[in-house]
Write a structure and sequence with these properties.
It is built from four helices and six strands. By secondary structure, it is α+β, with helices and mostly antiparallel strands.
Length: 130
């Protein structure tokens, strides 16, 4: 199934930190809704996320789901996130995907509990402001 393959590719490229390959999966105007970063264009969100992440960060797809109409999907994942300042957090979440007729991602809604990540994230962002 094509949508499952695209979701798998998304998580593989995210885990590798491969920005260019990630962007090939998205429509040019795609939007991401993130609990930490807010609403951003996908091209801006992933650039910032990857810049904030250390090379040790890994994302593992646990299971992918596809809607009956084949235009939506979801990926349950585990993220071992290391920030560039070496702060670490680990969490499980779900990404909800919407695809256009060309099978490009038009929207991602990221869902997870930020309790274990927000403190380290806020400290990293405060360092960038100073």
């Amino acid at each position: 199934m094509e949508i499952k393959r695209l979701i798998k590719e998304y998580f593989e490229n995210l885990s590798k930190g491969n920005y260019e390959k990630l962007m090939e999966l998205f429509d040019g105007e795609a939007v991401v809704f993130s609990p930490l970063y807010g609403k951003k264009l996908a091209k801006d969100f992933y650039k910032e996320l990857l810049e904030d992440s250390g090379k040790e960060s890994k994302v593992e797809l646990i299971q992918a789901f596809v809607s009956a109409d084949n235009n939506k999907g979801a990926g349950n994942f585990r993220y071992e996130w290391t920030l560039k300042d070496s702060a670490k957090s680990s969490f499980e979440g779900v990404d909800l995907f919407e695809f256009n007729e060309d099978k490009k991602i038009t929207q991602v809604k990221i869902i997870y509990d930020t309790f274990g990540t927000r403190e380290g994230f806020n400290k990293l962002k405060e360092k960038e402001i100073v």
